[in-house]
Write a structure and sequence with these properties.
Blueprint (H helix, E strand, L loop, with lengths): L2 H19 L2 H11 E7 L9 H15 L4 E10 L2 E11 L13 E13 L2 E9 L1 H7 L9
Parallel strand pairs: 1-5
Antiparallel strand pairs: 2-3, 3-4, 4-5
Helix pairs in contact: 1-2, 2-3
Length: about 150
């Protein structure tokens, strides 16, 4: 595997580790260092902002809702200019999330993130998040257990 590919994998590990700190300053600084300012976020988001501002806003929303958010990388696969992580995400619902008031419930869900790199920085992302699992565990769907 090339040095460039190894660098890209380590960059995505660093991103997930920063998010798991829950520290807004560390997360913001890490994004500024490893992500292109005009990053293309391929996941549809209900936001007015784009680029790194969109990425920071998504993470701020998640951190407010789940202050102890933690990302565990289960698989890390790289080829060419792309790195894929399959993650398990955990957190305790302590703040409003997608209109749902805090429940105090701990949730665990899966996500897959694909990042394309240019010049050693994240230039484009796509994420698939198991939102149905989140909603079920937060009690949105009555009669369905987590």
């Amino acid at each position: 595997m090339s040095d460039k590919t190894e660098h890209n994998k380590e960059t995505l590990r660093r991103f997930h580790a920063a998010v798991s700190t829950g520290d807004e300053e560390i997360i913001s600084r890490t994004i500024d260092e490893i992500v292109h300012p005009d990053v293309q976020v391929g996941t549809p988001l209900p936001l007015e902002v784009t680029g790194t501002a969109a990425m920071k806003e998504v993470l701020a929303v998640l951190r407010r809702a789940f202050p102890d958010l933690h990302i565990q990388i289960e698989d890390l696969i790289a080829e060419g200019d792309r790195v894929v992580t399959r993650n398990t995400v955990t957190g305790t619902h302590r703040g409003e999330y997608m209109g749902i008031p805090p429940t105090g419930r701990t949730i665990t869900y899966k996500e897959v993130i694909i990042a394309r790199f240019t010049d050693g920085r994240v230039a484009e992302t796509w994420a698939v998040v198991d939102v149905m699992s989140q909603m079920r565990q937060l009690g949105v769907f009555r009669g369905l257990n987590a």
